[in-house]
Known about the structure:
Two copies of one chain form a homodimer.
Chain A: H1 11-29, H2 35-44, H3 53-62, H4 69-81, E1 85-88, E2 93-96, E3 107-111, E4 117-120, H5 123-135, E5 139-150, H6 152-161
Helix pairs in contact in A: 2-4, 3-4
Chain A binds a DNA duplex through helix 4.
Amino acid sequence: MLATAFSPHDHTHCISTAISHAQSLCADRGARLTPVRQRVLELVWHSHQPIGAYELLARLANEGFNSAPPTVYRALEFLSEHGLLHKLDSINAYVGCCNPDTPHQGHFLLCKVCNQAQELDSQYITLALKLSAEQHGFEIQSHTIEIVGTCQGCLDKSKIVAPNL
Amino acid sequence: MLATAFSPHDHTHCISTAISHAQSLCADRGARLTPVRQRVLELVWHSHQPIGAYELLARLANEGFNSAPPTVYRALEFLSEHGLLHKLDSINAYVGCCNPDTPHQGHFLLCKVCNQAQELDSQYITLALKLSAEQHGFEIQSHTIEIVGTCQGCLDKSKIVAPNL
DNA sequence: GCATGTTATGTTATATTATAACAATCGTCA
DNA sequence: TGACGATTGTTATAATATAACATAACATGC
């Protein structure tokens, strides 16, 4: 999978794709992508930086939506159940899912310089988890895989700014 | 590494080893394992079930220790800095580290039946993370790897109780 | 249409997890 | 011993998340 988040790209395309994808997916499943749910999804997709629940809530409030915590947590729950976003436990923030059709849990790269998250679908990691679990007779149900560090773009920039370090 | 948490074992040995290990480690480093810090470490090691900060706080209070949140969070911070425990982000709970000498971040198996955690040091996972990051030019600084499921012991028990399922 | 059950939202309150800020005390060592 | 840094005490509050119950919207069979 390409590291879209960390590369220059037309992000409006990410948003429109995600929303239309969500609309057709919900239509297929008979699930209701109501205005507040769709708006939360759009806000989550506003960038590749994961966003917190209360930041979402503040933005909803600015737009005249109801803005008590249950509103946003319910929307996040719905979107999560339908695989449209993921929660990043290590930072208590939410990020859109690039591939909601196939149920999965992501592996994430989180750049602590630009604060962007990239979802991976690493066969290496999937296999490694499987092997490690099997060694212990452990049956996997879900997982949290979040790798924090610096993305290539931010590494390159830091070399330009401070080439001798 | 053996899956100690998930196997029958003399847990008093785990506790005493962890504490004496912590004592010598702190002595070597000139760090002060004060009474409240040591007691928090003992409470964390009370079992292989990760324990929450406020549960620790309640137990400290029962024993006459000061019991405002900063007390326990400071102790947890100290113990974490010295590699004596790990936080599990997916459940906001803390668990003792089996191997505090070598700085590392663990990979964990969390059994959702018995609520116990086992730290792994899987070379498979370490390598997989490294390869995945390299593919994206990403420089790893830390990670959160938490695998939730059912341990062998609990799987075996469920087969005995409900052999036809 | 409309009664009914189900799903979604509104509303209030509260639970849970964690930190800020500043004061007081303890330990160490010149 | 006195001065400094580390530790702890204390109060308040921030940040994240859910419980519980009321109301509204939607869907469906009659």
